[in-house]
Design goal:
There is one protein chain. This protein is an alpha/beta fold. The protein has 2 domains: about 120 residues, Nucleotidyltransferase, domain 5; about 150 residues, 2-Layer Sandwich (Nucleotidyltransferase, domain 5), CATH 3.30.420.40. The chain is about 35% helix and about 20% strand. It has 8 helices and 13 strands. The strands form 3 sheets. A 5-stranded mixed beta sheet has the order 3-2-1-4-8. A hairpin with a 3-residue loop joins strand 9 and strand 10. The radius of gyration is 19 Å and the shape is globular. The chain binds zinc ion. The site of zinc ion (ZN) has 5 residues, from loops. Belongs to the ROK (NagC/XylR) family. InterPro entries: ATPase_NBD (IPR043129), ROK (IPR000600), ROK_cs (IPR049874).
Amino acid sequence: MTDPFWVGIDVGGTKVLAGRVDAAGRVARVVRLPSGGPSAPVELLEQTLTEALARVCAGATPTGVGVAAAGLVDAVGEVVSFAPHLPWRDADVRTRLSARWGVPVALENDATCAVWAEVEHGALVGVSDALMVALGTGIGGGLVVGGHVVRGAGGMAGEFGHMQVVPDGRPCPCGLTGCWERYCSGSALAMAAGPRFGSGPAITDAARADDEGALAAFDEVGRWLGVGVANLVAAVDPSVVVIGGGVSAADDLLLVPAARALRTHLVAAADRRLPELVVAHHAENAGVVGAAVLARRLTQR
Ligand SMILES: [Zn+2]
């Protein structure tokens, strides 16, 4: 008899990542498959998820499965209403996958899943008021207020990346201009550093070797991180701000200029307790762990 386990499946625009997660949040047997992108048929995507699940389970039966979707999930966790990088449109994903797999399925937005991973098994255990800012291609975000992970009236809370920080600023793929994620994200870092670095990790390596251009890029992106976080802190007064996503591996290269800008831009900074800025515990597996946490909560009710 094996111990109970849950499966988290993180469905992104380019890849599907699935993992077996135990009650302590430990991940085992991770499977990665290409997701096919927004133009692939829905059936092909769902076949890919089914294959990932089968490989992760290897004949054993999970107690439940959580799906973290890179898209907007409705307020009750049933429907993917819109996902720019996936073929699901107004799709009743939870019911359909649950019927197909014969197990309870939880469905949630991927950034919200990353918050759950930190709340249950990471930097936010026991923290009642917190913010999460995940820096990737854009910004994924989440809020914990009074001990509750906030979803908003329509499931769309935490879209911090599209707050305007520069009036009439850089154009954003969302159709607006001056969005925070155009100044503060993995893409913004790559743009600030210039074309001589092939990848994000290469910029980090160069900055660690005191390359002036790479250090200046981190200073710029870190400063924008602090500016946006100051606005969010003014709104919700958290005790911890978790920085996640691929760029967070740069740690102090990003957090030092961010903390400096936070002090400069936050109202009453000298007369209040400043939130702690910390790096997320879960990097690439955040969606997998968070989705499995939600499946566990669903099946342990
Ligand atoms: Zn935008």
